[in-house]
Structures are given as structure tokens and as C-alpha cells.
Amino acid sequence: MENAELPRQPPPGPSGLPLLGNTLDFGRHTFDFLQSCRRDYGDVVAIEVLGQPFYQLNHPDQIRHVLIDNNTNYTKGSFLTRQFGEFLGKGLLLNEGDDWRRQRHLVEPAFDPDRIAGYAEMMTRVTDRLLETWTPGEPRDIGADMTELTLEIVAAALFDIDIRTDAPQIRQDFQAVTDEFRKRTARPVSFPPWVPTPRNRRYQRALDRLDEFIYEIIAQRRTDPSDDVVSALLRAGSDSNQELDTSQLRDEAMTLLFAGHETTAVALTFTWYLLATHPTVFETLYAEVDEVLGEDRPTLSDVPKLSYTRKVLKESLRLYPPVFGILREPIEDDEIGGYTIPAGSTVAMNQIVVHRDPRFFEDPKAFVPDRWSSAFEAELPQFAHFPFGGGPRRCVGERFAMLEATLVVATIAQRYRFELLSNRELTLKPSVTTKAEDPIIVKPTVRE
């Protein structure tokens, strides 16, 4: 359709304040605000945040249009670059065009199914090592534990290094960096990053430490290559006479380290919260783990047999998707749902909204792993459940993450049950990922 023929009426949406638009509502009550937009205005909703027009898409067919059917008309866009460019640079998450395709081609071998299979023993071994530090009955910040665990796993798998000593500081630094992005969105008027306020200094110190850690890995791999992603990127650049400079290597390594651990840590944290608050589901999980594993450590061959464990993870990813929204920017005007989506605007496709839509999920706020029958999945629209995105930019680490999460849950459930000590009612906050406002504290007790 030619641009001149596109319908020009704007989509409906909530009224906003002069200059600020909907920024305050979005920043203060992000998830409730996005849910209310779907409920009150339908499948295409116009909002304005930080001076940027957004078009919230709430139907799976519209999401498929953007991510698959017309994906060549959409880029990651300037909004994401402005928000996260200083942190992730031109790594795989934010880059575009031929550079992105080249990066994806270079990184994909690390996530080849055969190679991922080789990580399974390491994943359970590192999980066992974490459990050796637990004292039964002693409260645990399960989010901190899962973050340090997934950091150790991704560092071993993708970078061939042991970061047990560094993991607590790296976790804290990533948290400081991502918390800063949340504050920038929630507070439309604030000091720019270069002003040396205490908050800006904390952020810059954390980013500097992370950079130093990544640059040390790069320097080591230049002199001592290994069977890891950084070495592979160095070899590929040398073979093609297009060696990546240190800045490009930094961006790629930072993206892989962050994205490779953060989303899985969030998924595991919410899974343990859900299991601790749903003892009947936990008992069903125990029964499966006992039947499949007995007292043996889970292995790769056990994973297909852990079908209920996978249902638990799918349902957790539905209720609390680690990535709560995907953003794209149209290159040219597009038509979606009978409305014009102007070039240069931002399209938002929010998993946390679509995953809780009663049109696709009965009793959508309930934690019901058994809903994930084969018949249910066969009838579910493709993008009614999309925790790993979709289309050409679907998460390259999906298989890795699901294998890791399945093995971690099975390994821990063999030995422990959890009692929730923190507030049962969660307050969610948007950061780079979906987070609980307060730490989720559990008391592990040994299973009898």
C-alpha cells in the first residue's frame, strides 16, 4: 500500500499532560498503566513517553506483522539506542543491518544444539556448588543467588572463565547500572549523566568496573585464545581481514554477559516465588523430579522427561516474562489495525500485557502449569506467548536458557523446599528486565 493511501486517523489512547504526555503514569505505575491501556483502548493504543510517540500493540496478529511479516520495515530504533547505548553499545542486542547479521553469524555457533548439550554437566555442577553454601533454615535472597549462579554459568559457557570470586560485585554493578535506566524513565526531569551527582557517580563507577572486567577478558584472549566467544570473534575477524576493534569486542562481550545471565536469573527467581506460594504445584514438581531422577544428578538425557518442570517454567515465563516489552521503529509508515503507524515512532509489544490477556488465557492471573497441554499450545496464537521474542531477532540463547532453567530447577528441587519469608504480594518494577521491587526472601529446608 502506498503511504498516501494509509488511513490517517490516530489510534485511541489516554490523555496526557502538556510536554510530559503519559510519562508520569508510565514511570510510576508501568505495568498497571500498560494493562489499563489494553483494557480501555483496545489492540492499538497511542501513548507518549519522554517526548516519544509510542504505539502499543496488544494482539498476537499485530505482533507477528511487526516481527515477521513486515520485519524488514522495522529496526530496533533510536529510543533503545538512547536508553542503553552507553551500556551495551553496538552489541548483538542493539546493532542493525549488515553488522548485526555478521555478529549473529559469529555468535550462533556458541548456541549450536550440540554445543549447548555439552554445557549440561557444567550447569548442574555449578548449581550443586551453590547449594553447598546454603545452610538449611537460613533465609536466602533467592534473586541474588540465582543471579550469581547464572553469571557463573554464562561465564563458564561463553567465556571459559571461573568468576566465583567476582560474581557478587558483578551482580551489584549490573544492578546499579540497570536501576539507573529505570530511574531515568520514571523521572523525566533529572540531571544529565555527566553531572557528578552521587547517583551519577555510583552509576559511572559500576559501569567502569564492568568495562574493566570485560577488557581484561579481551586482553587475555588476545594473548591466550580459548574455545570461547571472544576468541571466536577474534579469529573470525582475523580470518576475514576485518578484525574487530577492542570497542566492538567490548560491546559484544558486555551484551552476551548481561543478556546471557540476567533474563534466566529473573525467570528462575520468579519461578521459585511461584513455587513457594503454590505448594500443590511444588509437590507435583517434587513427584516428577523424584520419579525421573531418584537421587541422581539430572543430565541432558533427563531433560525431555521433565515435562511438568517445563510446564512450570512456561507458566512462570507467561506471568512474569523477564523481557516485559519489545520495541521497534518503522522505517516507513505502516498500517496496523486500521491505523497509521508513522515512520520514526516507536512500536511497543509488551509480553506482560499479552501474556495476561483473558482472550488467550483463562484465569490469566492464576499460576496454572497444567494449562500447557499439547492441545492448548496447538490452538494458542503464535504471539500470545513470546518470552523470547520472535522473527529474525528471536533470542539466540533460547535453547541455552531453557536447558539451564530446567536443570537448575530440577537440581535444587531434588534437595530443597522453600518457605516464602518476604511479602506474598509482589510489586513489580520495570528495569531492563522485569523485577520485584523488594528482594524475594525464602527459607530453604531439606526435603525429607
Could you name the CATH homologous superfamily of one domain?
Cytochrome P450
Helix content: 40-55%
CATH fold-type name of one domain = Cytochrome p450
Please give the oligomerization state of what you see: single chain
What would the average pLDDT be, to the nearest integer? 91
Sheet-strand content, in percent, reads 5-15%
Compact overview of the structure:
The protein is α+β, with helices and mostly antiparallel strands and 448 residues long. The protein contains 17 helices and twelve strands.
Task: Tell me about this structure.
Strand 1 and strand 2 form a beta hairpin. Strands 1-2-8-5-3 form a five-stranded mixed beta sheet, sandwiched between helices. The protein is 51% helix and 11% strand. The model has no long low-confidence stretch (mean pLDDT 91). The radius of gyration is 22 Å and the shape is globular. It has 448 residues and is α+β, with helices and mostly antiparallel strands. The longest helix has 31 residues, at 246-276. It has a domain at 84-344 and 384-421: Cytochrome p450 (Orthogonal Bundle). The chain contains 17 helices and twelve strands.
Keywords for this entry:
single chain, 448 residues, alpha+beta, Cytochrome p450, five-stranded mixed β-sheet, three-stranded antiparallel β-sheet, 17 helices, 11% strand, globular
